[in-house]
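tool=predict chain=A
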Amino acid sequence: MNFKILFKGFRLAFRAKKRVTAFIIIYAVLFIAVGKGLQSALTSGSMEWPWLIMAFIVATVYAILISQFRSRDIAILKCVSWGNSEILLLLIGEVVIVAAVACLIVVELGVEILGIVAYMGTDFGVLSDVQSLVVVAPTAMAWTLFYIIILQIPGLALARWRAMKIPPMKALREE
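tool=predict ok
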């Protein structure tokens, strides 16, 4: 694996600040929802499939949007003789960094809320409501991160397929 290309994917992700910020927020909400769903499924033995289907849909949509918004960049990279596997690694880098940043934000938010609740006490009803809404158990968060990264594979396969169809001449056309 070429780690240099993977890190270029990380840097490339943050060039489109608005889209990446929006999807980091969407992924953070996804992590909280799926983590809470998996946490309740682990404790009560209920079904976890609806949460995984939701994670699959969001992850696939993001991978498709990356290939759509990066079509000109992909065409330019193809002009300078990048192969499809290198372009896939670039897409993987962007998807993984967004998922990792969202997971870190949710973990940090949970730690901050737990610290505030420990300091202030549970006398405030709002704090306990926010704590029950946002804080996810560590095992459920780890499984959520694992599932979301695994569920991005079909979306990345679709993004790779779409990226392979982009002709290098698209980079030279005026739009």
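The chain has a mean pLDDT of 82. The chain has one domain: 3-171.
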